[in-house]
Each structure stands twice: as C-alpha cells, then as structure tokens.
Amino acid sequence: MSRQSHSKNHSLDSCPVTPRSHKHSSDDISLQDSSIVKMCIDATDKVLSSEMPPSKLLKTFSKTKIKILDSNFSKAFLRIFVFSLPPDNRLILFKLTDLVQNGKIDKTTLGRLLFGKTFLEETCLTFVNTLLAKKEEVFLLNGDPAYTEDGKIISASPSALWDYQMANSAEEPLFFQYVANLFSDDDFVIEKARTEVVRLKAVSTQEYEKFEILIRFLRLKKIIISLLKKGIDGTKRNRILEFFNEKNFPKGLLREFDDSFALNQSQKVSEIVRKRNLKLRIISNENVPSSIERVYVKKLKKYILSSTLPKSQPIQKSKAETQNGFEFGAGSPLKSESFWLITKENVETVVEQLALADQQRLSEIPVFEFCSELIEESPSVCQYIEWLKCLEQKFMKLGNEKDVLNWLVKLAWSMSKIYEMNLSHLLFSILVRKSIEVQDFTSLLKKNRKIEYANLYTLFSIQKNCGIYRNHMKLVSENVSKILVFTIWLKDMIGIKQIPIWEENSHNVVCYNRVKLQTEKIHELVKCINTPFPYYRVDKFNMYFQ
Prior knowledge:
By secondary structure, the chain is mostly helical.
C-alpha cells in the first residue's frame, strides 16, 4: 500500500469515539504487573489452541481487572493510536483480534474484554469492526509512519507527522509550531490546517467529541500563530482568514490569533502573554523562590491593584555610542571607567535587573530563527551573543580587588538561586579566568564566598556533558522562571543539526528523532522567554546593561 493511500484511509470518520473517560478505581491492577500480563497472554493462547473455553478467558480478565484500552480511546488515526499504547496492551490487543478472526470469540466479547464495564455496544463495536478490518495495516511496523517493536516512531512523511500532531495521543510540544520549515513549506501547513478545520467543523456537533475537538483547535491555533509570527505574504494571510474565523473557530480561542494576525509580529503577543502571566503569578504569590524577591513582590502587587504597573519597554535599538570598547544604547551614557559603580549596588537588585535584561534580550529573537539550519549565523542570535560578550567584557574590567571578587562570586551564586543560569554561568566563567590571573585567588574569598564558588564549580562542571547542570535543571518546575545557559543550549542545537532531516535516499520521509529533539530544545528556551521573572525594572540599570 502506498504512503498516500495509507494516510487517506485513516480519516477522522474511520475511527469511532466514546463518551467522557471514566477513572480507574483504586483497586484496578496495572498492566505493568508482569505476572498479570503473562496470565492474560497465556489465557488467550490457550483459547486460540482450544485448550481452554472462551468463557474462562472472560473470567480471567474479570478477575485481574485488566483494562486493555483506556475508556477515552477516540483517535483520529487508528494506527497511531494502537502504537501509542504500552507494548503489553498492544500485544494483548493483537492476540484478542486473532481470537475473533479464528472464530473463538465474537466481536461483542472482544469489546467487553477490551473496555470492561465501560463497554458501550454501538461505539465500541464500531471501533472493533474498524480494528479488525484494518488489522494487518494497523499492526504493521513498517509503513507511514514506521515504528520500532516498542512503539517508537522511526520516520514518517510530512503528512503522517501532521496526522500524528493532530491525534489525541500526540505529546506537546508540536513539531509544526517550531520546526515546520525544516520539512515542509507554508502552503503545506496552510492547506493541512484548512482541511483540519473543515473536518473538525463537520464532527463538532457530536457531544462526546467536544473536548477532543477543543484539543485539536488549540493545536491548530498554536501552529497558525507560529506561521504568522514568522511573516507571510498577503495572499497566504488571506487564505488563512478564509477558514480561521469566527464561523469555523471557537471565539474564545481567537483573541491571541487576532493580535498576532494584526501585527504579523511576535512582539505584541509576547508582551500580552508576559504581562498577563506576570500579574497572575504575582497576585497568587506563585514562584517566589527566595526572600530576594519579596520586597519587589509587594510593590508589584501595589502597582497591579492600582493599574499603574510600569511597562516593560524593549531595549531601544537606536544608534549606539561606542566608548572604550563598550557599546551603549540611547539614554544615559555610561563611561566604561564608571561601570565599577555597579559593585556599589545591592546584589539582590543587580540580580533582578540582570535577569530582566537577559530575558528581554532573548525575547527579541524571533522563534523561527531558532530552527534555522545556520542558527549560529542568525542575525538576531548573533546580536544576542554580542550583547553577552559585551557584558562579559564589562565585568572582566572591574578589576581583581578582593571586594570585587567576593561581590562577583555572590552575584553569580545569587543568579543561580533564581535559576538565571545563563548569566550565572557567564559570571562563573569570568571568575575562572580571574582565578588564573590572580595569585592565591581562593585566599581572597570570604568563607561563604569560597563555599559558593565551589558550588558553582560543581554545578557548571563540564564532565559528562555538563551532566550536573542538566540534571539540576530537570528538577526545576516548568512554571518557575528560569533562563538556560545559552551557550550549552546552542551547542546542543548545533549537535542535533548533524542528524539528517530526511531519511537516506528519500525526500519525503522525515527523520522523526531529528524533528522531535529540535522541537523539544526550542520549546525549552521558549518556555524561559514566556515565563517572566516577578520583578519590575529600575530605570537607572538600563545604562549598565545596554
């Protein structure tokens, strides 16, 4: 069967749905119990070989309380759904279909074995009929997409990847939201989105599908907005408007889309999301990891309640003034020899302002540039790296006096405590260079600073591919404000690019591992940009970090 015909066979109408899912009771037995799995597999084999009557099979399944399929089994693409099941579930499902095909049990019995007490004859039998009719195709490892024996996707065509992203079993983040341009073009995405909207509109009147329909609409919104942020011509924008409107799309999901469409830029949408998240998190006292932030949280609450929250303005990109090797934007110029004044500022305040400045600079990089094949040569990325280098030079020229070294260690450690790892790593790199320049470096550090420096040394150790840092960041909640070490992130992205996009000898089969890894890495950084630090800006610090 060709890839094209295979994709067409799995339409939304080809697979039934059930009502809302039912939660398992506390005494349900999981299929992770190998003895239970073996008992069920042995029972199916005995029925198949006529060593045991089918009635005992029902008793075995009832006794173990096994549930092969979750009650929410509605999937647009049956093959993708089957391979999204745990391997044990899929094996038993395959054996049970053998029993039906060999006349050992009927379809109704199969439905009851699969769904237990949640069995609904009409919808479940429709599912069983579809499964049996396409059994050979559904359980095949090779095809579009191709799977390993444990159910992992190896490769797929762009069309199959789209189907995978629209299936309820798909995991976030979405490939087409971040890396679509690696294996498709704008016309492909627009046409797929239009087809999906038409299909969703046709089935959205079915009450039991409303939640699933909403999930797909949300995914479509993310994909279309990412396309608009990248910038498309007027003809393509008009094509999107033909189907992405109030007639076809839930009104509640159109607000962010409208903002993005009007500007065709990411800045306004990012600012709206940033302000909304900031207000919600501050009012609810969420993500206040240390006493460093409490004073500013109180002030920020006051600003929010009085609707006078200072606006976070993007760093101006006006003509820069260069003085003694440093670049400074418009506003209050700062001579390089005066940068040492920053050491007289409160460390906690400097930490907050550095974090805000770094996050602002990162937010100015268009997301679509992150998936560029020449990301290290991307204009916005290069501009951001230059800003980091400029900042590094400023701190390097502060000198090697005892007070300065202790201040830098405290600053670097405080940055790591609020999970601003990017500038914490930059400051640590400066300290390492200074430790080479300064004789008896550690003897100049106070007791607490020595401990903090040692902790930084451990945290940013390059052993095992920066394993300690990576594991540390995995433990940080997704909702906590943080910034990854950009140089490590960029190195990972360049490494991922070594994986071919297309499978060997093919221009229509995408390497799943490549797009998955790259999507996850971009999503990590986007989460950092879109989860604002709960501080407010202090204007006088603009001159330090421009």
